Amino acid sequence: MKDNFSVQSGEYAKYRPLYPEALFAYIEQTVSQKQAAWDCGTGNGQVAHALSQFFQHVSATDISQAQIDNAVQAPNIHYSLQPAEKTTFSDGFFDAVVVAQAIHWFNFQQFYAEVKRVAKADAILFVVGYGMLTISEPIDRVIDHFYTSVIGDYWDKERRYVDEHYRTIPFPFTELPAPQFANTVHWTLNHLVGYLSTWSAVQHFIRQNGFNPVNQLHQELQQHWPEETIYEVRFPLLLRVGKIHG
């Protein structure tokens, strides 16, 4: 798994959008037993914290110590530095496995083998993510140009799975019908700029060129978005759900 997020782990925790409560209500009602959940690729721990509200114990893993250092804490969350594909968890331990905005970085075959090993007989896998944001037609047009033409060549090849809404990832499980969710937040322009700077392609661009391309984008967006104005920002949620042992 690639670690594209340690460098900006503080900004990741500050600027990345939260997932809607309705998503976690759905997870809670879908899982029959709630002793233990695994939040794999936890990042800043936002999903682990939400799961900790209704699971007795949450194990949250990541390959980035910097991310874990910035993660949300709770008494029943245990964070550990472990790859998705090989963990120290016991066989048949988890009632649910959740992967949020991370599975496209994994080795699918190895990760799924690990999921099957650590899952209980009736456990459920939730693969979660969010797609390209939308705000308004003129703002979306500027961001789309930046996404494809300015930093397009700097995206890792795995990004295509997000663009394809996770529909093209391997999914060797008995798939359950999943409801559609949208993640709606209300941001200032500065918050949006902070979020865009956490994109892995932006970080690759900075390392190769020595400057942040979001600074120029910020100036272009100011033509459509007064600095202190709050706009609604909408992220379509990506969600695939499966019975791990069919």
How would you characterize this protein structure?
With 246 residues, the protein is α/β, with parallel strands linked by helices. The chain has helices at residues 9-15, 21-30, 46-51, 65-69, 108-118, 137-150, 159-163, 189-197, 200-209, 214-221, and strands at residues 36-40, 57-62, 77-81, 94-100, 119-130, 174-176, 182-187, 231-243. Strands 1, 2, 3, 4, 5, 6, 7 and 8 form an eight-stranded mixed sheet that branches. Helix 8 runs antiparallel to helix 10.
Topology:
Layout: H1 9-15, H2 21-30, E1 36-40, H3 46-51, E2 57-62, H4 65-69, E3 77-81, E4 94-100, H5 108-118, E5 119-130, H6 137-150, H7 159-163, E6 174-176, E7 182-187, H8 189-197, H9 200-209, H10 214-221, E8 231-243
Parallel strand pairs: 1-2, 1-4, 2-3, 4-5
Antiparallel strand pairs: 5-8, 6-8, 7-8
Helix pairs in contact: 1-8, 8-10
Strand content: 15-25%
Could you give the count of β-strands?
Answer: 8
Helix content: 25-40%
Overall body shape: globular
Distance between the termini: 27 Å
Following the backbone from N to C, one meets helices and strands in this order, namely: HHEHEHEEHEHHEEHHHE
Number of helices: 10
Q: What structural class do you assign from the helix and strand content?
A: alpha/beta
Mean pLDDT rating: 94
Reported for the largest beta sheet, the result is: 8 strands, mixed
Task: Summarize the structure in short.
With 246 residues, the chain is α/β, with parallel strands linked by helices. It is built from ten helices and eight strands.
